[in-house]
Structures are given as structure tokens and as C-alpha cells.
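The instructor's notes for this session suggest beginning with a concrete chain rather than abstract definitions. Hand out the sequence below and ask the class to guess, before any prediction is shown, which regions might be ordered.
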Amino acid sequence: MHALMREKGHSLFTPSYTGLGERSHLGSPSIGLNSHMQDILMVLQFEDLRDIILVGHSYGGMVATGVAARAPERISKLVYLDAFVPKHGQRVFDFYPAGEEERRRSSAIDGWKMPPSPLPPDTPPADAEWVAPRRVHQPLASFQEPLILDNGEPEVPRSYIYAQRHIPGDPFRQFFVRAKNEGWQVFEMDASHSPHITAPEALMEILDTIARG
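After discussion, reveal the predicted structure:
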């Protein structure tokens, strides 16, 4: 996405949450949603980023919602890319079917390292090979910790990008429906859950449309 962003004249920041990516060695049972929100808030502060478009993918929608509520003066638009859109007091596990929380908790390594979800079945082999070593365990607390919105819902303009190729039990369509019902800018993609990996050019066109809208 970096090269595509540059071609369109945009700058892209891709910070990693504590316990993930190049910061996976910092993972611990205490790392949760608030830790990850603080990660992004610190990037905004120390890079002095303003008038940005904040994009949250999947779990990142939890983080982006909290960040936009806490630092609205730095954010011009909030984009959910096939992501959770929580309200006050909600957790990631609240959006899964009954029994899924217990199943995932029981599968956690050392009681707190939650394995990544399987890649969508239509992920091309080359993409799967590229992303596999970059997928690491995520602290369980990040799925258990509720989002607290002391100041209410984010008041910045919001867009939702929905990836249509989902397996049964899709937890994200509910948020696409909510976005349409609440009058957000909405888009659908003929792609599976991670279009930034499998359909970057198509995603770039949508993001550019949002940025220039």
C-alpha cells in the first residue's frame, strides 16, 4: 500500500501495536485495547499528525474508534476497513457467536497468546506465503477489554468498506448495515477480509475517493 499511496500523493503511516509486528517481543498478558489505543495516540502526538484519515482494519476498528473519540482534533475522517465498530462498553468477543469466547480462550497459548485467525480460503498462495511470517499471536486481553467512550461516539465523518467474500458467521456485515442505516459513506469490495493484501489496487481507489471527497 505504501507505493500505491505515494503514487496518489498520500503519506501512509502504519504503526504496530504493542505485542504485534516488530513489537511482538513486547507482548504480555497485560496488553489490551487501551494499550493499543495509547500506541496510536502517541504516534499522532510525536509525529504531530493532524487532519489525518484514520483507517482501522478488523480489530483495528476497536482501536480507531477509541482514538478518534480521544483525539478528534487531529482526525478529519475515520475509515473502517471490514472492521468492528464498537459502542461504549463493547468488547470484540461481544460480536462473536455464543461459545466463541470460551473456545478462543481455551486455545490461547500460555493462557494469553491468541493464535491468528485462518487466512481466507481465496488468499492467493503468493500472498499467503508473504503474510504468514508476519502473523503473530495477539494478546487475549485486547479481545476481552471493553471500549470506554467517556466523551461519546466519535464526531468525525465515518466511512465503511465492506469485503463481500466472507465465510459463514461473518461478524462484519452487521457494521456495514449499521453504517448504511446511519448515513455513512459506504463501499463494498469483491474481496476477502484483508483487501490491503489481496486487492491493494482496488482498495487504493476507494481510499483515494474517500480522501478527495
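Then share the key points. The first helix runs from residue 2 to 7. The chain has a mean pLDDT of 95.
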